[in-house]
Design brief:
About 40% of the residues lie in helices and about 10% in strands. Helix 16 packs across helix 17. The chain is an alpha+beta fold.
């Protein structure tokens, strides 16, 4: 699990909150001139390709900013003599930037929502905060945020700029209001993830099965996993697909996204249909029949015994136990399936092996996955009384250089130590991510794999490469995740590359926060769907129950939500992301 976190959190998945104190509390030199600006040029990063000031300009004398800290306790620890107040980050930032930071408070990640809400209510705000998108919107509406347009244009390094412009401009859009920047967005590009199908390769090899390319191929594997004793114990005790329906999150729809994608149905997505209108990817005018086909096929699979007959009452732990105990051999999951839960299977059965394959195509033509052009994780903001907003930009530049920039990174010291998996980057209160860190890693590592030259790999990618080679050459299971993720061949990022290169991605056109109507009404129809879907799949209701659900979806949610989304789309220029990126 540590290596799973090391991979994803190296990219900033755990949200941290940080801040620099109230007016009069933070700066040791309120007359410092570096925060002054007479800039009056173009006001977008797209127009200004390079910084107009030194991105690492050091404060002299040093300034002090206050921060708060919340992260995954246990995922990192300090060497003897270091602490949250004194560590590799505090020393480097003071030495290189002349920025000291001190903590208003620290807490475990589980306590952060309550602590942050209390802080916002009291008005005792630090100057810099890392917040989720909902909190960002609340703070913006309350006038708590500072316009950082000029500091970002002046000080953002070329590396920082790269991931806020071009294909990545959709990230910065989330922090842009009326053409002004109110934050620095952290998140993932569409190239850095995706849904797929994971299949037990050792079972396929034993039964002389080939990787599936069509739904018929996949169904043949399902049938074999159910009926041909793939575990070789002589008992009729295996099935095909791992599922759980008792612990679903709001974004889950009984079956994983990749299952629906095989039918060109796209959960949690508003896409542009053939009429040029934006519709829900599951229940819109052109989508609903494809979703019907997915549910009917799931009911067929259930009747054939391809699913655990108790999946409706199974939670994640129960599902995973079936995986670990060798009861099933197919998991509809995402790009990080190797890191969780499949790596834990190797602890029980070191001979087990899983490979990812792209979603297979069925009756509706080539299967595609749905993706956000940019998935926002958190936004770094300066509150309204901060005296040095440009310090937030400088701090971001340096963090990028230490953790993400292949030409400058010091990954072992500032991110994740390969010897003990200490994720020291979690000690820093304002992390930010290269949104295609992993996809870029795949491209670099697979190239090195092909030509055998690893001297050009940066620390992070060399670490992943060495882990993969340790598994390939020595059978060290700790390297299996990297082996099934970063190399060329049967790896998850190779599957993502397939989607990218072959334009097998349907983009979510609605990039705003959910409206008040959506927030209020979607849980109602989601609950109705969950009950209907389980009943249809298990045969307790026929497919007519889906028609009844659609009527309720239209009346309670769909008609109004669709109208809201299309109005937003037109108000924002009516330019399709699909036409730009797809």
């Amino acid at each position: 699990m540590k290596k799973f976190l090391a991979l994803l959190l190296a990219c900033g998945m755990i949200l941290s909150f940080a801040a620099c104190g109230q007016s009069g509390e933070t700066s040791s030199d309120d007359t410092d001139t570096s925060s002054k600006s007479d800039y009056n040029g173009p006001m977008s990063l797209e127009e200004v390709k390079s910084p107009t000031k030194d991105p690492y300009e050091k404060y002299d004398p040093a300034i002090t900013v206050s921060v708060v800290h919340t992260a995954n306790d246990g995922a990192f620890w300090f060497p003897e003599g270091d602490s949250i107040e004194q560590n590799v980050y505090t020393r480097r930032y003071e030495e290189e930037l002349g920025i000291k930071y001190e903590f208003k408070w620290t807490c475990p990640g589980s306590q952060s929502p309550e602590k942050v809400n209390t802080m916002l209510t009291s008005g005792d705000l630090p100057d810099f905060m890392s917040v989720d998108r909902t909190t960002f919107e609340k703070m913006y509406k309350a006038g708590m945020l500072q316009d950082i347009t000029v500091p970002l244009i002046e000080y953002a390094s070329e590396y920082t700029r790269q991931y806020l412009t071009g294909d990545y401009k959709y990230l910065l859009d989330a922090a842009t209001k009326d053409g002004k920047y109110y934050g620095i967005t952290n998140g993932f590009g569409y190239q850095d993830g995706g849904d797929m199908i994971w299949i037990r390769k050792d079972w396929m090899d034993k039964l002389n099965l080939e990787k599936p390319e069509t739904m018929e191929d996949l169904e043949a594997i399902m049938e074999a996993f159910k009926t041909q004793d793939p575990d070789g114990n002589g008992a009729d005790d295996t099935y095909a697909v791992a599922l759980n329906a008792a612990t679903q999150a709001a974004h889950e729809w009984t079956l994983n996204n990749s299952f629906f994608n095989m039918f060109n149905s796209y959960p949690n997505t508003w896409y542009q249909n053939s009429k040029g209108e934006i519709e829900d990817g599951m229940f819109g005018e052109e989508s609903r029949e494809r979703t019907r086909a997915a549910l009917e096929k799931a009911a067929e699979y259930y009747q054939k015994g391809y699913f655990n007959q108790d999946f409706a009452t199974m939670d994640f732990d129960m599902r995973n136990q079936d995986i670990y105990n060798g009861k099933c051999g197919i998991v509809f999951a995402d790009v990080w399936g190797a890191y969780w839960p499949l790596i834990l299977h190797l602890d029980i059965d070191p001979n087990a092996d899983w490979i990812p394959v792209p979603v297979v195509s069925g009756e509706y033509g080539e299967a595609k996955i749905a993706r956000d052009a940019a998935q926002v994780q958190n936004i770094l903001v300066a509150t309204k009384d901060c005296k040095h907003p440009e310090a937030l930009v400088k701090m971001t530049n340096l963090y990028h250089d230490l953790n993400n920039n292949p030409e400058t990174m010091e990954f072992e010291e500032y991110n994740t130590n390969s010897a003990d998996s200490n994720q020291i980057f979690l000690a820093y209160p304002l992390p930010i991510y290269n949104p295609t860190f992993n996809y870029e890693g795949y491209l670099a590592i697979s190239a090195a794999q092909e030509d055998g030259k690893t001297d050009g790999l940066c620390e992070a990618y060399k670490q992943f490469y060495d882990q993969a080679m340790d598994y390939e050459k020595n059978g060290n299971s700790s390297g299996w995740c990297a082996y099934r993720s970063y190399l060329a061949g049967d790896t998850s990022l190779a599957v993502v590359d397939n989607y990218v290169q072959n334009k097998r991605i349907v983009f979510n056109e609605y990039t705003a926060e959910d409206t008040d109507f959506m927030i209020e009404n979607e849980p109602t129809v989601k609950k109705m769907y969950d009950e209907m879907a389980i009943n249809v799949i298990t045969g307790k209701a026929d497919i007519s129950a889906y028609d009844d659900f659609l009527k309720s979806w239209d009346e309670i949610y769909g008609n109004t939500a669709t109208e809201e989304v299309n109005k937003w789309f037109q108000d924002n220029g009516g330019v399709s992301i699909q036409s730009s990126l797809g």
